Amino acid sequence: MTLDLDLILTLVNPVGAFVFALSGGIVAVRNKMDIFGAVVLAIITAVGGGTIRDIILNQPVFWLSDPLTIWCAIAGGVIAFFLHSLVDALKPIRWADAVGLAIFAIAGAAKTASLGHDPLFVVIMGVLTGTGGGVLRDVVANRDPLLLKEDIYATAALVGAGLYAVLHFSGVPESWAFASGMLVAFVLRGAALIFGWHLPKSQP
Amino acid sequence: MTLDLDLILTLVNPVGAFVFALSGGIVAVRNKMDIFGAVVLAIITAVGGGTIRDIILNQPVFWLSDPLTIWCAIAGGVIAFFLHSLVDALKPIRWADAVGLAIFAIAGAAKTASLGHDPLFVVIMGVLTGTGGGVLRDVVANRDPLLLKEDIYATAALVGAGLYAVLHFSGVPESWAFASGMLVAFVLRGAALIFGWHLPKSQP
Amino acid sequence: MTLDLDLILTLVNPVGAFVFALSGGIVAVRNKMDIFGAVVLAIITAVGGGTIRDIILNQPVFWLSDPLTIWCAIAGGVIAFFLHSLVDALKPIRWADAVGLAIFAIAGAAKTASLGHDPLFVVIMGVLTGTGGGVLRDVVANRDPLLLKEDIYATAALVGAGLYAVLHFSGVPESWAFASGMLVAFVLRGAALIFGWHLPKSQP
């Protein structure tokens, strides 16, 4: 079985973008933005992480050849704007977001590995792809960046991308490395949702 | 009549940069920044949108070959710092800013169209070029991003860039598309200034 | 005596990154971030300025070929997280930070000059390299950007990079220009630390 990375990304990017866009739209509504602000924040959340990754790696920005991903982000922002109380109350959204996180993180790591970069950067770009959009969303909305403070969220991306990197550089078939990393990131994030896990903080 | 996009941009970029820089400098003074902060915020406001556009489109950043635009931004920041109460009180500044918005938005859309991108991205890059500097200014100054919340501002850029895109892809001569988009963006922004129009918000 | 810019940067980048990372980690602890947030903020502070510089100049991002710099940034973040009260109390850190500021600012200016850019951009990129990471740190941590408000900090980078530019474009040997710029930036920052100098503010 071979894994065609480009094909997988073409399929999953729009889905991940839509789910992430919902969270961007909800933050916009909470911050009293208008519908334009909701769409802007939705797009930033959906594609921000992957955009910074591609710029740093000096690759063409992924969504420039993929308008569908941006349309899905716009749709997520509009839906969040008009149906925010419904979307906000939906527990399944958190699980869809966990899927998005896992997919984006490993996809970002795999793209970086395919360019021949150091394992350290494979992991960093995985985390950046999975979480950068959420950090940008909070920065633009003038909120404290929640994912740097709470929950096992970025950590799930880190562990998943780390596992992918270990398997990839061990010569494990790409499809196994990809699937294992994604599964671990998703399970860890899911467990954090169920059990309320978080990382320790320092006492300032 | 032919429209030389490069020539037009060379002429209008410094003017737009100066006007936008004034608003950056005023925000800096309100936030108790020193003169260095005023100049930094002026430059970010003036060229931030176009810089992000060029980086995403993988084009040379426009002001690297055009020091005059940066000098105009610095001048705007210095003037705003020393004459902020005068500048702040000037109603005509709002109208100059509306001209800057219209020019930058359509110029950004036209540059993107000239590179052969999808109409969706032509519109997005137009809005980004017109408004990205203002969002960056508010993010760096740690303010809520006003243009995502209030007034018909980004919307004017959106409608103008949208009209430009429709005309451009319909085969209308470039100069007509450019002028029509700019005029509509300016008139819409001007009407919002006069009548206090704004977009509806969702009830969070 | 010849100055090999690449060699110098390879030697000093990790040191500067480590020192800057400490300040990022301390801000993270103060903002109640977890250890992941501390490492993220440490990396952003350490390499943010140089990363934006390289992206704007369309150069390969410097740390992609230099994992040691990122490891030093991670180490700085982890140390600041676990030993923050110790690190925070250390006066010598401020002096190490002044050395980092001076090195990064002149290194950024020299890299820009070596690419043949206008003197204005040599100075701007010097300031950006020296101070951009600190501004990004404050933006992500949702703080007011202190260096746009207080002390002779960015100004030290500006004067040092300006002196470097004057000497470089006057044909002074590169090693003299580099050393003079660095020394002046460091002395000015040091004097500001000792005497509490700051720039005047406008009365809003």
Automatic annotation (TrEMBL), chains A, B, C:
Coiled-coil intervals: none
One Pfam family here: Gly_transporter
Key words of the record: Cell membrane, Membrane, Transmembrane, Transmembrane helix
InterPro entries cross-referenced by the UniProt entry: Gly_transporter
Domain Glycine transporter residues, every copy: 13-84, 95-168
CC per GO annotation: plasma membrane
Topological type in the membrane: Multi-pass membrane protein
Segments crossing the lipid bilayer: 6-28, 35-56, 68-87, 94-114, 120-140, 152-170, 176-199
Entry's localization field: Cell membrane
Sequence similarity: Belongs to the UPF0126 family.
Protein name (database record): Glycine transporter domain-containing protein
Organism phylogeny: Bacteria, Pseudomonadati, Pseudomonadota, Alphaproteobacteria, Hyphomonadales
